[in-house]
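User: Quick sanity check before I run a bigger batch. Here is a single chain. Can you write out its predicted 3D structure?
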Amino acid sequence: MKRKYYNLLLISTFLTSNLSFAQDDNSDAIFLKLEKEYQLNEDGSSDFRLSKELKLLTYYSFHRLYGETFIVYNPEYQKLKINESYTIMADGKKIQTPDNAFNELLPRFASDAPDHNYLREMAITHTGLEKNAVINLDYSLHSEKDFLNIFKISDYLAESSPVDELIIKVKIPLSAMAKFKLLNSEVLPEIKEEGNMRVYIWTFNNLPAYSGEFLQAGWETFSPVLLFSTANNIHDYISSILKQPAFEYNVNDRMRKKAESLKTDSSDELDLALKIQKYVVKEFKLKNIPSSKTGYKYRQANEVWESSYATSAEKLILLTALLTTVNLDAIPYAVIPANLYNEEISNAVIKDYLVRVNTKDGSYFYLSNEKINDQDMAYELSDMALVPMSFNEDKKIVFERKRKNEINVKGELKLGKDGHINGIINAKMAYASNPFFDLKRNKSKAQQLISGGISSSDYKSKILASEPEKSTIEYTVASKEALSKKANYMFFELPYLKNGIEELHIHGLSGKRSFPLKLPYAFSENYEYKIKLDEGMSLVNSKIKREEKNKVGKVVIEIKSSVVKRSIFIYQSFISVDDYPAFRKLMNLWNDRNYREIVVVSDQ
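Assistant: Done. Predicted structure follows.
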């Protein structure tokens, strides 16, 4: 799961009641007005209408960003209608969008997905575009009553450009009951009755654009999000999805035969589960087809088996089906941010899926449905609520406890005048920092964990212990070319483990940050090396003591009597905008090349 944090497109910052932020003068465009209307009809069908007035401010805005509008829909259940489409040019001239500017396409995410080739995307090419022109578009989308089991809205309100005025309207019959929550905003709705409908209206002004800053937290953490549903609670919402054959986890004879063949070659329950996970991940291409476009309807496991791809939910279904076929106690879960799990929110913000396998000895572990995870996902889930995707009512919501994920490395290295390095490095890794699953699959993975001034050909690895919670690896170093020579000076970058904070590639942090930063978990890493030198050699940086300590964490770097110590502690995974400068100080010191390598001078 940890890598999922890296490629998410995430947005905006915590907003106050009026959302009264000045617009960015460097914006490429601005929504002068954006209005969205959702309506649940008496017969169970629903309607959505969107109208926008988008002012273009730069050439880039219409050459690359907003020259076209794309509307994805499901023609088997939905009907699209374009109400208006035109451009008001800078001089006030109105340019009507011509008929040949409307083209129906196959959505890119549905390519190479035959069973989803029924989906469509309306591409609208806007005309008359120039700086200070205003695009006007109004369209409606009607959904049949059988499309969705529950009327639900998950609307992330920030857009790719600032919005002067945003109006959200929701209409439901007076006979319908609904729950809603607006996250990260204190804007209250106007509630009124119109005929047989109850109408909720939220009005926002000066809404800032979302951002693509590095390592952002989820949208729902600090940006305004409207969650609205006719479900009573999350359980009702999940149950509405489960009422389809896919969640019966049916398998055919070929699937059963494949699972049994993997069982024959497996040494224990974990080994078998890992083999099945690898098969599902590798053999079925992941297609990011939004569930909202399929009506949250999924193919059965045996149907997925006959294809070469699967959506995320379908991989969950297939993985669960294969695991249970070989009598593993597998329970599928939806992963929801813990701070969003309460009875006020009847529309789950599902971030991921995973499968929990309960073993016969009373323990358990979690597997990703999308990737081959290197360790039990339990150690990354302390800020998540796990909701079972199962008909079995005795399955409860799970909240995993926090663990101390840590790396401790000690080593003795001898540096020679000839540039050779020899020595021993002992590495201990715990919980999320322990790649136990990788080592279980292939012991040679240990050889790939260490980096720095030595390459994989410079050492041999030996696994001293490997358990679910902790592993210990010994590295024997023998290198003839690890030292970089310049005149009488030699440079050596200290070895480090790649499965710790280095995996996030947090380098070159900007001076300012507009939005919170989210790490997969807190970090604790310690490195200690005793350096021995040939006669006639000495450390240039032989006495150093640098320490940075603040509310976010601590970094200590010390060189004394040929002993080099480096340690970093990040106490929290969520870094607020206010705490970002403190985090940046820690990382800048940790990444400073002057303290990541030792410099040796020789008298020859």
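The longest helix spans residues 269-283.

User: Great, the batch can go ahead then.
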